[in-house]
Amino acid sequence: MLNAGIAPGSTVDIGPDGFDRVISSSLIGHHVLTVRLTEAGLIAARASIVIAGSEAARGDVPMFTLLDVDAFATDYFGGNLGAAIEAQMRLTPPAVYKSGDQYATAKMLVAWWAAELSRREPSAETFNAVSPGSTPDTNALKRAPWVMRNVMVPFFKIMPGMSHSVADGAGRYLEVAGRDDVSGQFFASPARKMTGDLTRMDQPHITDRRLQRAGWNATVKVSGVDLPTSVPLPATKARPASATPAVMLEAA
Q1: H or E segment at 170?
Q2: β-strand 186-188 against 48-52: which pairing, if any?
């Protein structure tokens, strides 16, 4: 379960690696870890890898606007999608920082990463992005802007359908981790919902293979880490039905 991540603060926070911390914690660190484990042959042949997504990546959540990568690339980078994504990762001009928008874009990149990884790794493994839904009873929002922490979150907790328990959110991860028939997908709540039945997302901006590939290439470039061309995976027995991975939640 790849679940590290932080909610964005009011001002940009660039880490020593030169990346916005929202991007590095949600995606770059997970990418490096997964590749290094693959290189070492430590990912089981029947592994089910789940990375934390967000409802915001759907593009229909108020206060969260996704980066239009095509438009950004056309306007400033001669149509180079990878260069546009890299600029947003590093927040180099003309990229700009808006807390909610950067978080939504980071989680969109997460969905693309899972999809592209599923095509680059052995079919015996599964890689999916899963939103835990709105789970405000975690510590993930401690860096969020004051309005989000003190106005929006209390509102979510009293409005029916706007949030659910940590246990419900964890159950979503386990639901997808227990499946071996899907890979490269992004699962979240239904459109314009923050909770509800776990649904496979099929919006054009999520399923566009050009964008998925460009996101992967940008991640490889900024991290300096790519999958090896061929790594033998250890032979393992099927995971017992009772075996479930431990999970920790971040906010939706």
Answers
A1: helix 166-177
A2: unpaired
Task: Give the single-character DSSP code of 14.
Answer: B
pLDDT, tens digit (0-9, with 9 covering 90-100), for 160-208: 888 899 999 999 999 999 998 999 999 999 999 999 999 999 999 999 9
Q: What is the mean pLDDT of the chain?
A: 86
What is the residue type of 193? K
Which tokens in the block code for residue 63?
Answer: 């206060």
The structure's pTM equals 0.88
Instruction: Please name the helix (run of DSSP H) or strand (run of DSSP E) that holds residue 220, with its range, or none.
Output: helix 209-223
Residue matched to tokens 């300096």: 224
Q: Domain-by-domain residue ranges, the chain?
A: 21-223
Give the Cα separation of 21 and 89 in Å (integer).
9
Q: Which amino acid is at 77?
A: F
At residue 143's C-alpha, the angle toward residues 141 and 144, to 5°, is 65
User: How far, in Å, are 5, 141, 239 from residue 43 at the CA level?
Assistant: 22, 31, 13
Please give the structure tokens belonging to residue 171: 């159950």
CA angle 60, 66, 69 (to 5 degrees): 135
Decide which of 3.30.70.1290, 3.20.20.480, 3.40.50.1970, 3.40.50.720 is the CATH code for 21-223.
Answer: 3.40.50.720
Partners of 126 in the beta sheet?
Answer: 48
Q: Which residues contact 243 (CB under 8 A, 6 or more apart)?
A: none
